[in-house]
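Lab meeting, item 3. Inverse folding demo.
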């Protein structure tokens, strides 16, 4: 897991994360920016960045299961849609998975922290 401690963002507020080639399809990669654990996910050709900290009770979502654009928390089984952060299960839960802006520039992934 690449870790960048106390790094500074570029002028647009994006932090350099990892090389584009470090992110395979359908396999979340965890890294940190200034102590914030983040998952980078390449799914159906789209690159997404979400918090690796479950919004329910802060479990490590990198230890959860990722399938068809959803991630299931390993602690209590909450399921989140990584495209929009919505909680899919339980259906009456209103917490949302935090999302981050992400872009790829010249083979490098950058995330707005
Ligand atoms: S900590 Fe993730 S569902 Fe409870």
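The presenter then showed the designed sequence:
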């Amino acid at each position: 897991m690449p870790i960048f401690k106390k790094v500074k963002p570029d002028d647009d507020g994006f932090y350099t994360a990892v090389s584009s080639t470090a992110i395979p399809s359908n396999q979340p990669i965890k890294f940190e920016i200034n102590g914030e654990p983040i998952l980078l996910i390449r799914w159906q050709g789209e690159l997404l960045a979400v918090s690796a900290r479950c919004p329910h009770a802060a479990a490590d979502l990198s230890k959860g299961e990722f399938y068809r654009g959803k991630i299931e928390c390993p602690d209590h089984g909450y399921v989140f849609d990584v495209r929009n952060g919505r909680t899919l299960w339980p259906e009456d839960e209103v917490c949302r998975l935090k999302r981050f802006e992400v872009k790829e520039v010249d083979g490098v992934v950058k995330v707005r922290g």
